[in-house]
Each structure stands twice: as structure tokens, then as C-alpha cells.
Amino acid sequence: MLVVMKHNATDQDIKRVVDVVGDMGYEARPIPGGQRTAVGILGNDGRVDSARLEGMEGVLEVIPVTHPYKQVSREWREENTVVALANGTKVGGSDVVVMAGPCAVENESQIMDIAHQMRDLGATVLRGGAFKPRTSPYSFQGLGLRGLELLAKAREASGLAIVTEALDPEGAEAVADFADVVQIGARNMQNYALLRRAGRLGKPVLLKRGMSATIDELLLAAEYILAEGNEKVILCERGVRSFDTHTRNLLDLTAIPVVKALSHLPIIADPSHGTGLRAKVTPMARAAVAAGADGIIVEVHPDPARALSDGAQSLYPEQFAELMEQIRVIARAIGREVAAPLPAVAQG
Amino acid sequence: MLVVMKHNATDQDIKRVVDVVGDMGYEARPIPGGQRTAVGILGNDGRVDSARLEGMEGVLEVIPVTHPYKQVSREWREENTVVALANGTKVGGSDVVVMAGPCAVENESQIMDIAHQMRDLGATVLRGGAFKPRTSPYSFQGLGLRGLELLAKAREASGLAIVTEALDPEGAEAVADFADVVQIGARNMQNYALLRRAGRLGKPVLLKRGMSATIDELLLAAEYILAEGNEKVILCERGVRSFDTHTRNLLDLTAIPVVKALSHLPIIADPSHGTGLRAKVTPMARAAVAAGADGIIVEVHPDPARALSDGAQSLYPEQFAELMEQIRVIARAIGREVAAPLPAVAQG
Amino acid sequence: MLVVMKHNATDQDIKRVVDVVGDMGYEARPIPGGQRTAVGILGNDGRVDSARLEGMEGVLEVIPVTHPYKQVSREWREENTVVALANGTKVGGSDVVVMAGPCAVENESQIMDIAHQMRDLGATVLRGGAFKPRTSPYSFQGLGLRGLELLAKAREASGLAIVTEALDPEGAEAVADFADVVQIGARNMQNYALLRRAGRLGKPVLLKRGMSATIDELLLAAEYILAEGNEKVILCERGVRSFDTHTRNLLDLTAIPVVKALSHLPIIADPSHGTGLRAKVTPMARAAVAAGADGIIVEVHPDPARALSDGAQSLYPEQFAELMEQIRVIARAIGREVAAPLPAVAQG
Amino acid sequence: MLVVMKHNATDQDIKRVVDVVGDMGYEARPIPGGQRTAVGILGNDGRVDSARLEGMEGVLEVIPVTHPYKQVSREWREENTVVALANGTKVGGSDVVVMAGPCAVENESQIMDIAHQMRDLGATVLRGGAFKPRTSPYSFQGLGLRGLELLAKAREASGLAIVTEALDPEGAEAVADFADVVQIGARNMQNYALLRRAGRLGKPVLLKRGMSATIDELLLAAEYILAEGNEKVILCERGVRSFDTHTRNLLDLTAIPVVKALSHLPIIADPSHGTGLRAKVTPMARAAVAAGADGIIVEVHPDPARALSDGAQSLYPEQFAELMEQIRVIARAIGREVAAPLPAVAQG
Fold it and tell me: pTM of the full predicted structure?
């Protein structure tokens, strides 16, 4: 438990908190910080009564043991974290960032074509899976290393930054060699070996919320990455499991303002996996921006009917173009801007 | 309807299924497949009871193909239903309608003040509970008939249309005498006696989705009202039960485009109950409009800290004013308009 | 909030609690009881710190505001409530009570036949719906009053007590005229007009848990009935909504020991609605008894394939006979007995 | 697979679906119906990707008929799989197997003491975590390799078989060197790299259901292990995420008979994690046996109040002794036996 003092708390205020904690049978340890002092409680078995402390002079708030994340919390760091990608894209600032591309890299012409289209329509990050986690062992599992090479080629040609998924600790190293952002998927949100490795890669990480993860669990998964020294974490809401069968998942857009209040990390939304249905992607992408998301990640395929995976939830490029127009207006309605398109790449 | 047979079902098993289907007055068509046979049922008008088939020898599962609702479905009627209220407000057309007001009518000055503020800020419908369904029998249950009278007075003074909840069949008659729209709350979504009475009132009905109702169940509840001859039904997404405790409910905004594809009825969203938290109401109201809602219903209270119910989720009037500005822009981004403010009421 | 004192707390202990509450800015009101004194806290806005009180001499426990039920709680009344039915069946004592019969009363020979079979196999209560709540307005809705008359006739012939559902306040009066136990179904668990009427009927009430009701909400619904003066309430776990489509609902058997710790009311389980699948009814009925349920309510039909409703989840009489054998052994394993069969009815 | 067309689909739409199905290498058979046409797909071996069809013009929905798992299914293999452990324990036969022990191995005397107690009370498998997956990076993470060595020592002294969790592919090798059964925890149920490695270890695997995994997903996760050549898989129900906060998870005991109908693999239940509350473990362990589980895995700690993890859900040894008595009777009620206690280990 952490007692956060007001920035103008006096030494006397802090001393009184320390005394009360001692009175409760625990040890208090003041932690002076840049803006304020916090008082940690040692030996807390989870039964410390926060209410007794909350009312004291000079106390801003008491962070209970049931929110055991620290470094990811806004209490720890008040200003938004802005994750800067190699091509200049900034996630978590005032820009709304658009990441787009196919579910999976299928072949060179597919990924090169879509990269150019996405760039021309205003996306600044290209998504595309090389390693695909599939519910069935018999489904298409991605091109693997060859997929990573094609993504790197697409980046060179288009200027887009690359985000692609890593499935296990060793794979994460390979992905980090090629990609600008290492994605950890929903199924692996609590794969702690992978989270720890991601924390040591030095590359930005896109961490997707697990299928039934609470928001606290999402933040604790991010805490694993920060605890290894990597603060460049982008969270992603992608829908949670629910009971209605009309959609693949239930996109929990309220998680966006909830996370932004609890944490300084950026959060984007994935309306493609969040709905599983092409016709619902555009309205929910708009809604995500209206709800305050720092970006969206959207599946677009040049020929969805022939996609090797997730075709039913991929937009046609024309639909994506219309979506871009709409979210430009919506972003402005709340004082933000969709990130500016990339400059044209010099053609050798 | 499709009856899927087990892979080791015998010819005798299949014949018995065919016979039972014939017995029900329909035609059965066996479809032999690679691994198993399926039996299609032709001419099914949606009234086949699958239970009789599910328990039969050799049957693996019965898959419904026809949706059980009819009059509410877009297949039944392709054009949007537009529900016109007495003060000219139209729900379900190109306008985005704003309904606003306190959770409960508390006294005359409260409801009169807020009515004028809501009208001046651009709402065209006033919400306010006279009969309150409360989880505990010991909580404030509303002013009852006196609340209805005050709502009528507020309508006269402001020009706003009135929406308020009915809790039981008799109450529905009283509500219909005073209100422009009779609300059926989430807890009563499958209160069939109340739905049937609402279907005979001749007044528009606002039907809220139950706390864990599927979209099909919501549409079937509406079907009860239409089946009694009342087509003036407005659906409302207000959040479903989920596992995260940061919010009161999980607002399922994807339900909006899903319902609009399945049904011709208008659908609005309630971000106040859908989140339960004042700070999340504005982003989720914006998101609802961006997702294509035909309107929003929002709790606003002149002094939320002293509200007799739901204070924690009520907006301050200033917050509501800012929300109106934002959704005017967002509505235009998708080719709609927030409904024009009402003309000033002539002061005798 | 209620501070429950130990039964041997001294006047001095109680005075100290009163003083501390005053110190907190609230008013304390001691409530002397048969076994112990409780101290109520008036003016509590929900922020009273229970921990400060919990540690005091003579205090047994502090019941927080977030459990706003009172009369249904074990704190209010320590001994189990035993609901006695007219035919001598006692629900909530050491006996495990079996209620069985068809989903719906369909005609005289069906209900008379099944009543005799159920009695002969050892059930002591007959279930059978006269008024059926159906998701679709076009499904079979029950025989109504005629169904009630047939149930009464079956009772006379068999000696079984009758449980059947009421759908609305007026219907509840009619049901109470004929039945021994008035059932309130899952869809109506928060139909407060119906709950209040049930509280004034003077007949035992079987209250089913709503489709996504928390245990606290179930207890609060029961509180509505007790608040009207009727303590004869039997709770029923019947499955909650979840995400897996293999079963109709997710039977939450852990709710049984949870409810028994929180409340003095009896609780039974409905494995028929809780699973929706005949082949799962027997194992889950056994599991319910093993988990400590005070009884089970099971659908049995003489010819499930021709049942007008719920055929797929109805046991054949032979299956029911086997189930009875198994639960007799299981009940004994935990020191209980399946209620003794009724004596033969004298044949005029 | 069945492709259901919209009621207003054109002949052209239907023809295109037929062509695409042919293109995929299967045969399409249109089934004209009363309201709409459906197109059956013949010869589908379970590898058809529905997404390609779902997005096509005129298609209402695509309904899978073939279950995507194969080797785990009872259609593939009718007889129960019996997993034999090194000490003679057989999981999946007529015996009900009891696995018991502490959440985590804490030190030598703790694990040796509890091993002897568990053996004497009739368990045949010892559980105990060496590598602990923890939601927070700051919680106790287990003794690691030292924990495995202590488990091996406890096995030698007690004769119990050992089950302990592996968190990642490399760890799985280490675990397999020491343990009799390699556990894959709920958080890792879809960690495909780990599943594949587990499939190549040659050791029995205990696979726990993910926190919100459907039963089909659980079976598909097992399919990953069988697809690598390892058939020795024991499934485990351990509770799914739900909305009630009284328990840690919602133990879905109906999954037991559901899995046993779909698959030949054994399934056990974990009432400790499934409830999270000591007082609910015993009733739910009994219920699991009554529901037909092939075993239970229960946390028992010599001093739960001082346990380094999961103390609140660990039984005292005396409680475990009483539970063993009860389940011996319950197992017999359904024609099974709790596995016979191990013979005493020869003391050198």
C-alpha cells in the first residue's frame, strides 16, 4: 500500500502518517519524489485499513494493495508516456495514430501493395502477422521469418513503421530485429516469460488485452515489461469475451478512458478483432477515436475474400479511405488530429 | 433449421428424424456429407421447437437458421422506423436525438430548473424517473404519481418531450397518461405482462436492453410490443454485465450497428448507466454517436453530490454543454445532425 | 452499517462502540436482540470505516453498507429457516427435497400420470408450469387457469405439494389460490411489483436467481419479499449466463455454499434449466446435492420428444428413478437424507 | 459447414458462393427453403476457412457443422484414454484420483511433511509449484529449480507422483526431468510454443482450462499436444471468469460431463482455484466427484495462514481428511472408487 501525499503536504503531515502506520503495527517508509512524497507501508498483509489514512491532513490518496501495479500508474508518473517510433510516429501525444494492414503477411506482392495503399491513405504504421497464433493446430500459422523479411522490405519501400506479433521469448528476439513495434497478443497477455523478454528488447511493445483480462490485469502485465526497464509500452483494447454470439468479442471502449485515468501509458483500439465483422469495423473505429483512443489498429486486405486468415473482418481499401476521412473530423471534435501522412519515399 | 447427425448415426436414426419433422408439418431434406449427415428443414416459419429433435437418438445438434423474430426484423421491413414524438422530435431518422435530465424527479424546482437548462442546451427530450426500480427495498423509490405531474408541468414550461419509466402493467397506464415515451427498464426487459401492456398503450416505448440480454432477446422483447400492434419502439443499449469492476456495466456499443443491420427499429445509447461514472459518460456518449446511435440518453443533475440517486454518474450542466458541442461535430462527420433545438416556449 | 456484538459483549463494550461511532460523526443506535446486541449507524453515507470498529473488544463483525440486505442475512437470524409445505415437506432442514415434473402442464392425463410416477419414485413436490414465460411471443404460453386446476387435481390424487410460476402480480393471486409454492422465475427476479405481491400472499415462494444476478442481488430480491412480512422464501440456483455455447446456462453450484454462509434461507438447484441438456441433468443434480443444496427441482416428462416445451432437458422417468437412487447415497455421505417418500394416498 | 443466404440473395449471389466453395476444393449443395436458401458444403474435413465466405454478397451467416478438433474427440476414438503415472496411478479409468499438496513448494520440511500427510490420508499424487505464474511481477515467484529438487525428494520419500507447472518451453524440459506430470496453467492454455513443447516431452500433461476458454478452445489446446504425438493429456476444469465477486472464479462443473461426451481424455477439477475460498473447497470437491470428474486437485497446507501464496484457499490437513471420507462414499454412489492409497514406502 502506498500513501500518496499532496504536493504541498508539510513535514508534519508526513510524520503523522508515519506514526499512524506504526500504530497499525506496520512500518512506514517515506519515499520523497520530484513532485510529492509517498509513504510505503511495509509488512502489509493486505488488511491495512486505507480509510484511516485517507482522511488525514496532507494525504492525496491511498493506493490499495489490490492495485499492485506501480510503474505503469499515473500516480507514479503523471504525464502521458509518448512512445516514439523510428519513422517519427508518436503514440500517446495529441496525435491519433493509425496502424493498418493485413491480418497476415501472405506474399511479397500482397504486403508491398497494401503498404503503399495504407501509406497513401494516411496510415503511418503497417500491421501484418508473420507468426500467427491460431486456435487450431491445423490452421495457417504464418510465413515466419520470411514474413518478417517481407515486412522489412515493405517498410523500406513505404516509410511505414512495422508492428508484428511475437509468440514466444526466442521469437521475440527475431521480431525485434526486424520490427519497430513488437506485438504481444491477447492469448499471451499473461505469458510472463514473453513479457519479461519483451521488457529487455529495447523496442516499443504493443500489448493487447487478454480475452477476459480485467483492466488491472492488463496494467499488471504491462508492469512486467516496465519492471525490466522498458517503458515504451502501448496498450490495446481488442474486445473481451462475452455471451452474445453476434460478434466475435465485445469491444470494451470504456476501457480507454478508464486506462487513461489509471495509467500514463498510451492505449489504442483494435476494432477488427474487437468485432470480427467487417461491417462493424468502421463504426467501432470511429467510436474508439471519439472515446479518446490514442490510435486504432485496423485490418485491411486488398482482397478480403481470398485472405488466408481473418478475411471476414478485413476492410476493403476503399472502406479504409472513407474511415480515414471520418476520423479526421472526429479527432478534431475533441481537440486532437489524426497523425499527418508520411512524406513520399524517395524512389531510387 | 438444420439437424446435424452424429457421424455414427444409423439410417434408422435419420429416418426417425425425417418422420418427426414431417409430423411437425414441415419437409425434411437429408444432406449426406463427408463425415456426417445433416437434415435440413424446409418451409420452417420460425415456430419449430428444436427441443423435440435435440433429444433424439443419433442427433448431434440442432442449428437454428431462421431468426425467431419477425416484425422487428429488417427482412420484414427494410426502411428505418422513425418514431415521432408529440413535440416534433423524430427518433430513427437522420437526426441524433438527445434525451437528458436527472435520474429521478426529486422536487418541483429541481425538475423545472433542469428542464429549462436541458432545453436551452439543445436536448429535445427530458428524462426523469417517477417510479424507480431499486435493487434494495430500502432505497428511495421515487415520487410516484406526484413525479409524473411534475414532469408534465416541466413539459408544458419547456416544450421538451417526456420519457419516464413504468414498472408494472398498471403503472404503465398512469405513465402513458402523462409521458410522451414510456420507458421499460433493463430489469423488466423480459417482464412479458408489462411488454404486452406497453404494446396496447399507443404511446412510443423506450425499451432498454436487459443486464445480460443477448441482442436476439432484446429484439424478441420488442417483438412482444409490436405483436400487440405498437410499432413505436425505440431500443436502448445501456451496458451489460461483465467481470471488470472499474465500471458498473460494460457498454456494448457494437450492439448499435448490429441492431441496425438486423432491425428497422431505432436504437439509442445510455452512457450514464452504461458506465456508472461521471468521468466516462462524455467519452462514451461521443463514442455512441460515432458508432451510429440514433440518440443518447444522459443523466444530468444541477447538483450531483446531493442527488437522491445515481449522483455519481450524473453530469454537471456545464459538462453536458460541452458534450453537446462535441457530438454536433461528430454527427456531421457521419452525415447526420444533432436534432435542432426546440423553439422558445411562448411565455404567457 | 451494522456492528454486531458478540453474545457475551459487556455493556462497557457496547458503550465504547457507541462512542467511537459518535467520534466518526455519526449516530449510533444499539438494538438489543435475543442473542446479542447490534449497533446501527445512522447517517452513514457509505464511507464509514468498518475496520476501526472491527477490532474493538466485544465486536463480532461489522456488516458493511455494500451488503444492504438485512432480514435475509444470517447476521439477522442465525438458525436456518425451514419452509414447511402443506403436505409436510420441509425445505431447509436436514432433508434434501426433490421437486419434479414436466416443464408445462399440457393436459390432464400427462400431469396425472407424471404426478403418480414422481410420487412413487420419491419426489414430494410436483412442478409444472401453467403460465410460461417465453422469449418469443409466438411460443406456447401455457394452459393458464386450466393448468392450475389440473395441478390441484394432481395434488389431490398424489399427495404431492405443487410449485408453479406466477408471471405478474394479479397472476400471483391466482397461483396462490391453487399452489403450495409460488414460483418467481429468473426473468422476474427484479420485478419488484411481483416480489412485493408475493410478500403479501402468505404462501411459500420459490425465488429463482436471475440470468446474470449476483448473489447479493438474489438476496436483495428475497429481501423485498421478507420486507412485506413473508419469511417463507426458498432460493434457487438455476444457472447464469456465460460465454460457452455447449450449455444453455452455466450452473453456479458454488452459489449454494456461498448463499448458505450469507443467509438463513434454504437454497435448491435446478439442473434442468441450469444445463438445458438431458444428459447433463443427472450429473449436475448429484453435484448439487453433494455441494449442500437443500433440494433439487428437476424436469421429468413421460415423453420428452413430444413435450410442448423444454423437451430436450427433461429426464425420462427411468432416468429420474436412477437419479433418486444415487442422491440417496450422496445425501448420506454428508449427513443428510433425501426426504422420505409420501405415504400412499387413500383411494376413495 | 452451412452457408445461410439472406432472404433476398440473388441467384448470382448463390452461384458465387458455390463457385468459391468449389475453388476451395469442396462440393457445394444449395438447399432452397421457405424463407431463404442455404448452401451445404460436402466433404469438409474441418479445414475450411469460413471467413472467406462470411464476407460475400448475399451471405447471412456461416454455421460450422464439423468440430475443428480431431484426435481429442470421442468420434476419433471411442474408448476413454487412461493416463498411467509412474507410481501406478491411473487417471481416466474407474478410479477417482486425488492430487493434493501446497500451492507452492516453500522449503524442505514443508513439502516433506505435507507429502507424508497427503500419502497417509490417501492422495496418490502430490501437487506443489516450483515456478509460479503471478499476476504481479512483485509477488513470490516460487523456488524454481530448487523447488523441483525438493519435489523429487518428496516423491522418493512418499511414493506419490509429482505434478508441477511449467511456464515456458525451456522450463518444460526441466520440469519433465523431475516431475511425473507437467502442468500447463490456465494463463498458458493458448501458449502454443509451450503446448507444442509439451507435446514432445513424452510425459503426461495436466492442461488447465483458460480463464475464459470455451470448452472447444480447451479441446483445441489439447489437440496441439496430441498433434505432436503425446496422447497422455489430463484436462482440468478450474473455474472461469464471471461477474460475481463472492468467489475468485466460477467453477463450471457442467464442463465435466460436456467434455466427457465430446472427448476421450480424462478431466479432473480444481476446486481450490475454482472458488478461491477454503470454506467452499470441500463442497465443490464433493460436487466435482458427483458430477463425474476423474479426479480432483486440491490445495492443502500445513499452516495456511503462513502460506506464501494462496493461503486463503488451502485446506487444513484435517479438513482434507474429512473430504477424503466423503468422496469415498460419493464415488461409490456412481459406481466408482477413490484410488486406493499407496503402499507404505520401505524405510531404508
Answer: 0.88
